[in-house]
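Backbone-to-sequence.
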């Protein structure tokens, strides 16, 4: 067997042997719109993964990873999804911050922050979006002032995934008074367990709360906990977003395929498949999913180069729109009964939850409109949109 096949066989066997006993009931738990499910148990599972060396598999060995090749990383994420293993709780630390520190951090920052990510001892969240700086991220108003050996941070972040479960937040803040747009921003590592931090959950359409508002009122961050030079945080922040478009999206697509297959089975079972319009939409969903996979594989050359380039926006806009439309298809397959809650007071079916949460797919991690701007300006080289 090739090294990739051996690696795939190894992780498949490990998952089969370990998703048992106390972890058996975690199959299929968690994920977007369902992060509230068995969080403590999923955290214990992820630490079990870490003890066996199955976290951060793509990181270089000197930083605690396995040094897995790109092909091996694809195999890991696909096998993890095929096993229906629980959604990861350490995704933001492992897939976003860790690679950012490896690329831009100081040796001291890597030594301090990477081992707790590998061991799943410290969880991270992302402090980017604000009430007036969501898709227009360059409009960040959260500010940080240098006072001696510390930065003092004041402002508000919103849509902060899993902030209520996190220990740290990487925060994009304005550190140069009077600066505008992309200039004068810095990338700070801020501990959340300190006075001045207030975290307020945001109730979603699904009735759950995995997003949060985070308020910083004179919060402290060590001066040495700035990634990159002061005022150059935009470049670091964009690199982090690039890492978000990485190899793990291949595992995401396994989950998409499982959802599509379940929609097809439901359509056959309840007779919706007899409707030619439903059959046509199912066919288009299938071809769309194949396109998503081939596009993701094509984008892996950017990952191999260090981080996906602006072309990764093509994949984001495509899968987000596809998944939102799958939610709509699922509800139409359910028929009129899909409008009724499964129970009191707001007990949703899996299809209802898919439909409601997938509305956000075209918004979070960069809205479709922003992705189109990136593709137009940075991929196609078209004139930039006029901005005030």
């Amino acid at each position: 067997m090739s090294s990739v096949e051996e690696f795939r066989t190894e992780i498949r066997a490990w998952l089969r042997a370990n998703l048992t006993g106390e972890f058996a009931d975690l199959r299929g738990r968690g994920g977007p719109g369902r992060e509230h499910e068995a969080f403590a148990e999923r955290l214990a599972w992820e630490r079990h993964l870490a003890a066996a060396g199955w976290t951060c598999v793509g990181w270089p060995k000197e930083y605690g990873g396995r040094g897995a090749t790109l092909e091996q990383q694809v195999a890991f994420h696909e096998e993890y999804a095929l096993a229906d293993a629980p959604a990861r709780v350490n995704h933001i630390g492992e897939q976003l911050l860790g690679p950012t520190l490896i690329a831009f951090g100081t040796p001291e920052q890597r030594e301090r922050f990477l081992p707790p990510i590998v061991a799943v001892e410290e969880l991270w969240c992302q402090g980017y979006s604000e009430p007036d700086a969501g898709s227009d991220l360059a409009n960040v108003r959260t500010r940080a002032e240098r006072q001696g050996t510390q930065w003092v941070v004041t402002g508000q972040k919103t849509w902060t995934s899993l902030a209520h479960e996190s220990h740290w937040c990487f925060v994009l803040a304005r550190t140069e008074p009077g600066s505008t747009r992309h200039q004068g921003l810095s990338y700070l590592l801020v501990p959340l367990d300190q006075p001045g931090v207030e975290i307020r959950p945001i109730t979603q359409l699904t009735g759950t709360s995995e997003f949060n508002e985070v308020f910083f009122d004179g919060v402290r961050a060590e001066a040495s906990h700035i990634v990159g030079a002061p005022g150059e945080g935009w470049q670091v922040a964009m690199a982090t977003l690039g890492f978000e478009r990485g190899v793990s999206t291949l595992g995401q697509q396994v989950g998409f395929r499982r959802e599509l297959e379940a929609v097809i089975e439901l359509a056959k079972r309840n007779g919706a498949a007899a409707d030619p319009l439903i059959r046509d939409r199912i066919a288009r969903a299938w071809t769309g999913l194949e396109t998503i996979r081939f596009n993701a594989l094509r984008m892996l050359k950017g990952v191999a180069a260090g981080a996906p380039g602006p072309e990764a926006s093509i994949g984001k806009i495509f899968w987000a729109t596809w998944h939102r439309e799958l939610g709509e298809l699922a509800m139409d397959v359910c028929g009129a009964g899909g409008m009724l809650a499964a129970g009191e007071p707001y007990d949703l079916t899996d299809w209802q939850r898919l439909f409601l949460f997938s509305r956000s797919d075209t918004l979070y991690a960069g809205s479709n409109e922003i992705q189109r701007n990136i593709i137009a300006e940075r991929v196609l080289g078209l004139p930039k949109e006029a901005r005030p």
